[in-house]
Design goal:
Layout: H1 10-16, H2 18-39, H3 44-53, E1 60-64, H4 72-79, E2 84-98, E3 103-111, H5 116-123, E4 126-130, E5 139-143, H6 144-149, E6 157-158, E7 172-179, E8 185-188, H7 189-192, E9 204-210, H8 215-224, E10 234-237, H9 239-250, H10 253-282, H11 284-292, H12 297-335, H13 347-374, H14 377-385
Parallel strand pairs: 3-8, 5-7
Antiparallel strand pairs: 1-9, 1-10, 2-3, 2-9, 4-7, 5-8, 6-7
Helix pairs in contact: 1-12, 2-10, 2-12, 2-13, 3-9, 10-13, 11-14, 12-13
């Protein structure tokens, strides 16, 4: 038994006319891949912030709100926290790391040497090479990804005393490499607190560990605590605080991306409409004959819509395949060696890239539907026989 073939079906036309269909599909596919390849690496900003925020799921940093130091009254408030497990003095140092555009900073948290193991265990990191910093030394253990990005190895020195252009004051030596989900390193608090040394000017804070399952309660207590004057006692650098700050920092990025993608979409839509128009003009005799033998204009518009949608779907699939293929190669050869984080399968760039062929297809259908409704089959046939 032979399979029935519908000569007038949209699927049949798409398969029988590759010379007309392929240019339309290729143009849309390449631009879809371009949008995906350009927008996706920019998610590295969010992914990098996320890597920096992960440790705050396990601790909260606290500084005095209106004072330079923790007085006895503030210490008593900290110790009165019913959800606190314990607290540790700390300082924050910042190590430059590359980004897709410009540079970011990775924290080197200075803790008492005896606290390093417990801190790394709590945040899910581990020492994979070398040793942890010893007490009262300038050794640091940095994340393996950061070391790769900065081309550092065990024994390398850095800091402003080593390189005047370095933003990190002091002098440090890499003695260990850390791996894990949290992109930070550890240094010794004693070394960072030496009197008359440049690092002594770095502000101290308290790392507060909450009891199991009570971190939200601990943060709420710290945010509500009042000093002797009735004013807020602490500045609480919690995960929720930094997520709000990060959201504000990133809120304008979609505006820029949408403007760029919108401009690309307009240009490509015009190109696709032009290609579809040229294809339609070459088929004007076909549509005129179909109208002359009684085919309804609505049905012909439906046929055009199915053909256009079929080409758009093919372009969408091919574009995503090309885009992700490029991204995987780009990540392996360029981003990973520089430790630049990227979220490959992010919904936002996929949505932007997917919208392009659909917008182009919808616009083409509207333009060609208008042309079909204005078509005079008699005039077309007369011109053909003239």
């Amino acid at each position: 038994m032979t399979r029935d073939v519908r000569p007038l079906s949209a699927w049949h036309w798409l398969l029988r006319n590759p010379r007309r269909v392929v240019p339309i599909v290729v143009v849309q596919a390449l631009v879809t891949a371009l949008v995906l390849g350009v927008v996706t690496p920019l998610t590295g900003f969010e992914e990098t912030f996320e890597a920096n925020l992960r440790p705050l799921r396990h601790y909260t940093a606290v500084t005095p709100m209106a004072r330079s130091q923790f007085g006895d009254d503030l210490v008593k408030l900290l110790d009165a926290n019913p959800a606190e497990d314990r607290r540790v003095p700390a300082k924050a140092l910042w190590l430059r790391t590359p980004m897709v555009v410009g540079e970011a900073y990775t924290m080197l948290i200075a803790l008492p040497a005896k606290e390093h193991d417990d801190f790394l265990r709590r945040i899910g990191n581990r020492l994979v090479e070398g040793v942890l910093p010893a007490e009262d030394t300038n050794g640091v253990a940095i994340h393996r990804d950061v070391a790769r990005a900065r081309r550092m190895k065990l024994g390398d020195a850095f800091g402003r005393q080593v390189d005047p252009e370095d933003s990190l004051p002091g002098s440090f030596v890499v003695v260990g490499l850390i791996d894990g989900p949290a992109r930070l390193g550890v240094a010794d608090y004693g070394y960072a607190s030496r009197p008359d040394y440049v690092l002594a000017r770095q502000e101290s804070f308290q790392v507060v560990y909450a009891r199991a399952g009570r971190k939200a309660e601990s943060d709420a207590y710290l945010e509500a605590a009042k000093d002797s004057d009735g004013d807020p006692a602490f500045k609480v650098w919690s995960e929720s605080f930094w997520r709000r700050r990060t959201a504000k920092m990133m809120e304008n990025l979609p505006l820029v991306l949408n403007a760029v993608v919108g401009a690309i979409t307009v240009v490509i839509t015009l190109v696709v409409v032009l290609l579809q128009w040229i294809s339609f003009q070459s088929r004007s005799d076909e549509f005129a004959l179909l109208l002359a033998v009684g085919r309804r204009r609505r049905r012909l518009v439906g046929k055009i819509a199915l053909e256009t949608l079929g080409a758009a779907i093919a372009a969408w699939g091919l574009g995503l395949a090309l885009g992700f293929g490029f991204l995987l190669l780009y990540q392996r050869l360029v981003l990973e060696p520089k430790a630049i984080l990227v979220r490959l399968f992010d919904s936002y760039p996929i949505a932007l890239a997917s919208a392009l062929p659909l917008v182009a297809a919808a616009t083409s259908v509207l333009v060609l539907a208008w042309r079909v409704r204005r078509m005079d089959p008699v005039a077309v046939i007369q011109r053909r026989n003239a």
